[in-house]
Specification:
Layout: H1 3-20, H2 24-29, H3 36-50, E1 77-81, E2 84-88, H4 94-107
Antiparallel strand pairs: 1-2
Length: about 110
């Protein structure tokens, strides 16, 4: 494999990793033969070569806190992402909420 082919292969892998929304460890575990060390190496190498990071910049989102007179005693949290609202109640599944928020952020 030529150097250009290798770079093209890793650019495709990096794009797939970024689109997955997974952590480096999770993504590498689902891609046999690719270690987290390799992926981090190529993420840095690509950034250094192109002067652009593949990492998405951190975006701060506004948080509004208001008094609520809901019937559940105020034990819920309303999360708004774009035009979408999610009500989070005690006993929610944190992993599911994380996945839903990632999808909504990508779509908004």
């Amino acid at each position: 494999m030529t150097r250009a082919e290798l770079q093209q292969l890793w650019e495709a892998r990096i794009a797939e990793y970024r689109e997955s929304g997974q952590s480096v460890k999770e993504w590498c575990a689902s891609h046999e033969g690719i270690s987290p060390r390799q992926l981090w190496y190529w993420l840095r190498k690509y950034k250094d070569q192109n002067g652009v990071s593949l990492e998405k910049p951190t975006r701060w989102l506004p948080v509004e806190i208001s008094e609520s007179s809901s019937g559940d005693g105020g034990n819920s949290l309303l999360v708004r992402i774009g035009k979408t609202s999610i009500e989070v109640r005690p006993g929610f599944d944190p992993a599911l909420l994380t996945q839903v928020v990632r999808v909504l952020i990508a779509l908004c």
